[in-house]
Amino acid sequence: MKVLLVDDSRLARTELRHLLQAYPDVEIVGEARHAAEAREALQQLQPDLLLLDIHMPGETGFELLASLDQAPHVVFTTAYDEYALRAFEVNALDYLLKPVQESRLTVALEKARRKLVASPPETTRPAAAEEPAATPLTAQDQVFVKDGERCWFVRLADIKLFEINGSYTQIYFEQHRPLIPRTLQHLETRLDPKVFFRANRQQIINLKWIAGIEPWFSNTLKIQLRDGPEVEISRQQSVRFRELMSL
Fold first, then answer.
1. Which of 11, 89, 129, 171 has its CA 20 to 30 A from that of 99?
2. Span 176-194, mean pLDDT?
3. 214 and 233 in contact (C-beta within 8 Å)?
4. Gene3D superfamilies given for it (predicted)?
5. Are strands 2-6 and 27-32 parallel, antiparallel or unpaired?
């Protein structure tokens, strides 16, 4: 497991290095003192896990994550306990208070191991402009989603629906429905077509979340998503859907 340490305190980084020596499967691939160094290191080193401080010169750890289009798994290390709720809202694996206790670090690393087995992260990339679209993502990639003051890291595989809502796109995952400033056209170029299907002009569905299919009016289809809404597939896309899902 490749780990990147991000902390403005040299003493804190040294202490983490010392603690991590006890875990043979952990490789510290680099260190960063602030967000700018971390972004460069993430792109070059492609770590599996980020041990991330919150308070750093310039940008905070949260602001660093908000600037990334993709990221490895994250464990926060901080001297402040008031950010724990916010940390878990961005799907951090754990939140370790300084001085970091070996027992708590062991728990955090085990969470990371389980996540890596279930969904190994892909290369982290800086956020891309709307056009041109960046390299397509896989269903196991994590993406950063921000809506107002709330933010999350979410696997694309866990998103069941993308739906136009005014000039924004609404994302359906778990009980959340955040809005992002992206068009469906842009998202379609980023998403894996084997997993995500353009149902109509308004919606893209995750094929893995389909619970039921039934014929609908004018040779169209109606899809029931697991724990989600019904989606009507347009006539043209119904033809494509049948071809895609047939042997």
1. 89
2. 89
3. no
4. 3.40.50.2300, LytTr DNA-binding domain
5. parallel
b/e per residue, 161-174, with b = 16+ CB within 10 A?
A: bbbeeeeebbbbbe
Sign of CA dihedral 111, 29, 117, 192: positive
CATH pick for 142-245 out of 3.40.50.720, 3.40.50.1970, 3.40.1030.10, 2.40.50.1020: 2.40.50.1020
| The two structure tokens encoding residue 36 | 């700018």
- The Cα–Cα gap between 155 and 116 comes to 12
pLDDT of residue 126: 39
What's the pLDDT tens digit per position in 55-89? 999 998 888 888 887 788 999 998 877 777 676 66
Average pLDDT in the chain: 86
Q: Is the pLDDT of residue 131 over 70?
A: no
The CATH architecture one would assign to domain 2-118 is: 3-Layer(aba) Sandwich (3.40)
Distances (CA, A) of 106 to 66, 155, 229: 27, 24, 40
Beta-carbon count within 10 A of 152 CB: 20
Q: pLDDT tens across 189-214, in order?
A: 889 999 999 999 899 999 999 999 99
Integer Cα distance of 4 and 74 in angstroms: 10
